[in-house]
Amino acid sequence: MNITAPIKLCVFIVSLLYLSGCQLANSLSFFLKQQQANVKWTTPDKTTSVPFTTYNHHIIVPVSINGGEPLRFVLDTGAAATVITQSPRTKHLSFKKDSPIAISGSGNDGDPTAYVLDNITLSTGDFSIANLSVIYATTDALPFDSQDETYFDGVIGADFFNRTTIEIDYGNMQVTFAEPPESHEHFHDQRLAQGWQFHAMPVHSDTPFIDTHVTINDKKHTVKVMIDTGSTGYLSLFMGVLPEGVTVPAKHYEARSRGISGYSRNKVGLVDNMTLAGFNVNHFPAYFRSEGENPQSGSHGVLGNQILRQFNAIVDFEHEALYLKPIRDGVSSQTLPHLGLRILPHENGGIIKAIYEFSALPQNTFNVGDIITSINQTPVNSTSFDHIMQTISKNSSNHSHIEVCIAGHQDCYDIPISPMPWENTVGK
Questions:
Q1: Residue range 182-206, pLDDT digits in tens
Q2: Which is the most buried residue in 38, 188, 279, 340, by most CB within 10 A?
Q3: What is the Cβ-side half-sphere exposure of residue 241, based on CA atoms within 13 angstroms?
Q4: If DSSP codes are grouped into helix, strand and coil, which group holds residue 359?
Q5: CB–CB of 141/103 below 8 Å?
Q6: In this protein, which residues make up the domain named Peptidase A2 (predicted)?
Q7: pTM to 2 decimals?
Q8: Which pLDDT score, from 0 to 100, does residue 331 have?
Q9: Alpha-carbon span 172 to 177, nearest angstrom
Q10: What is the bridge-based pairing of β-strands 279-291 and 235-238?
């Protein structure tokens, strides 16, 4: 299993106190223009379903920019603004960079500069938003080292969630956008009759939150977390703002994660239990972030897509409602061993971004920055990436080694599986 650091994709417009001159004017203009965007449906029932794929545990939907070819956009409940990224597939688009704006996210290295693009039309299926102002984030403003690592072309979030009710159906691998129902009470009763479980989801500053219970070190706590399909992890908790009594599990490992505003430091340990819409999720790894916190609206952390993807979900910003239904009979936990590597997508396969201390890799085998081209004889690419990582997780309990091929290496390597620190007798 590849436990990747939670990449925070959502873009929070930094406080106006940080802006001056033309940047202040541009930010005010950005917020005003968001209200002037026009919604268009090409179906009379004002609903459309589009297929999605997953890539590094993100929900990737096809989105066209100004009528062009469909590109890879992340469906991100935590994104307060729509973003177009500089990627191998958007680099041919000529975007003006004359309206700078500061953006921020997790990390302690300062807030980068992106650019405002006006009069953009985004389309998916039979739904489009025209005259939209979006953020254009160049590679310098993204948590990647090169365009080859930028595996998505944009992020859609609040602009879509504020204008539609969105259903994420993992069973059929499709996302349905629909005009919000005229009668929320009728819609609510229908969903409950169909077996959905309701969870109140307050929305602050275009960002959804829920209150939930987590059990850590055999102690139960109530926490407020952001619902964030743009996070690739399970759960991130901000140590500086957590309720009194929350402690990091004794058995953990240390990991850095990279966000828009730089690097964060984390300790990764096992959570005993979390309740979500009446369902229990047991024994999963969480990031306890000690540096680089980015709390929003008094929240304690971020609930990521590694957990959310175990449910079909209906997200209703207008009525601050979240409906969940497990896609299997029971919600599963995934804590099996893995390679001791942090692997992220790359245009040419998967790039090694970190080698953890508990890794069982022989010394001088791999280096950070190496490109993995195949695992267990399957080429690593955008189509296979998630399946391969899941296969590693499933097979690791029955196999002690996994074959890994590295670009530029003449031979492939038989890599031993690395037990997680909490599976050892001695914690860190």
A1: 889 999 999 999 999 999 999 998 8
A2: 340
A3: 18
A4: coil
A5: yes
A6: 71-107
A7: 0.88
A8: 52
A9: 15
A10: parallel
Question: Taking the CB of residue 383, how many other CB atoms lie within 10 A of it?
Answer: 11
CB 14 within 8 A of CB 104: yes
Alpha helices in 233-284 (DSSP H): none
Strands (DSSP E) found in 83-187: 83-85, 100-104, 113-124, 127-137, 154-156, 165-169, 174-178
Longest dimension (CA), the chain: 63
Report DSSP state, residue 360: -
Q: How far apart are the C-alpha atoms of 413 and 182, rounded to whole Å?
A: 59
pLDDT of residue 61: 98
For position 186, what pLDDT does the model report?
95
- DSSP lists the bridge partners of residue 122 as 65, 129
Which residue has 């009069």 as its token pair? 119
- What pLDDT score does 341 carry? 87
List residues bridging with 413 in a β-sheet.
404
Q: By C-alpha distance, which of 392, 363, 353 is closest to 376?
A: 392
- Residue 12 bridge partners (DSSP): 104
On whether the CB atoms of residues 261 and 105 are closer than 8 A, the answer is yes
List all residues 6 or more positions away from 33 whose beta carbon is below 8 Å from its beta carbon: 118, 131, 132, 133
Q: Which helix (H) or strand (E) holds 254?
A: strand 252-259
243-248 contact pairs (CB < 8 A, 24+): 243/300, 245/219, 245/221, 246/216, 246/219, 246/221, 247/216, 247/217, 248/288
Nearest to 140 by CA among 86, 78, 97, 84: 86
Residue 291's pLDDT is: 78
Which residue's entry shows tokens 């005259």?
A: 131
Position 163 scores a pLDDT of: 95
Say if CB 117 and CB 134 are below 8 A apart. Answer: yes
Is residue 17 helix, strand or coil? helix
Token representation of residue 357: 């201390």
pLDDT for 12: 38
Q: How far is residue 339's CA from residue 2's CA, in Å, rounded to a whole number?
A: 7
Cα→Cα distances 388→176, 188, 342, 356, 416, Å: 27, 38, 14, 20, 16
